Amino acid sequence: MNTHAYPEIMSAVREQEPLVQCLTNSVVMDITANVLLAIGASPAMCDTPTESADFAAVASGVLVNAGTPSYEQYAGMRAAVAGATAAGTPWVLDPVACGGLTERTRFQRSIALEKPSAIRGNASEIIALANLDENAAGGRGVDSADAADAAIPAARVLAERTGGVVGISGATDIVVSEGRITRITGGDPLMQKVIGTGCSLGAVVAAYLSVGADPHDAVVAAHAHHSAAGAKAAKTASAPGSFKVAWLDALYTLTSDELEQYTTFEEESL
């Protein structure tokens, strides 16, 4: 495992300033845009059915997050996926609350058949998306009812089906692709007290996938940047409000040395 690749990918994102199209939920648009700006990317919240396909063709990366969906947004997401696929633009599926509600679960499972470059979710969402257990109830809203390790079998199935990379968020994040598992430990519990930290990670993953690095390494590096900034922010913040500001600042100021200082990596071959 070459952990020095991760700071190099972080530097590439800052140098290339990728344009990330975000088809995401209304609750997190503001923080997602600010997170992308903080890591060095450029956000665009373009999700209408008539424009999504064309924009996906010129974007560097695309995020599909059906957290607060409407029928129009579903149509926009399908158009964006079609445009991204035709143009070879990497796209990320964030299956928010998959397994909890019938309509969104049906949509998320169907869009996963279009082979996203990466899938990012909590353990319960990943398990529900893979649909290995028809009796699985999913998490409580956007909160996971399962530990990250419990989702590894589902993540392996999804990686095999899509040919992409699967990121599982938890106390220790786990990134799975065919032949590799990487664990990233960092972050801070205060991240769970700020709306949009999880959803914004999907956008960070889309940005990182766009710079030409190995996809597995790119997804690990995205999780590491996100997580290391959380650990750095916790050094000066003690409550959610101050943490949110400190975390955005940390995403912007994080150095290569700090990326390795505030995260640990564990690699496993399959």
UniProtKB/TrEMBL annotation:
Broad EC category: transferase
Gene label: thiM
Function: Catalyzes the phosphorylation of the hydroxyl group of 4-methyl-5-beta-hydroxyethylthiazole (THZ).
Protein name: Hydroxyethylthiazole kinase
InterPro entries: Hyethyz_kinase, Ribokinase-like
UniProt EC number: 2.7.1.50
Gene Ontology biological process terms from the UniProt entry: thiamine biosynthetic process; thiamine diphosphate biosynthetic process
Signal peptide as annotated in the record: none
GO molecular function terms noted in the UniProt entry: ATP binding; hydroxyethylthiazole kinase activity; magnesium ion binding
Alphabetical list of Gene3D superfamilies matching this protein: 3.40.1190.20
Keywords for the protein's UniProt record, in alphabetical order: ATP-binding, Kinase, Magnesium, Metal-binding, Nucleotide-binding, Thiamine biosynthesis, Transferase
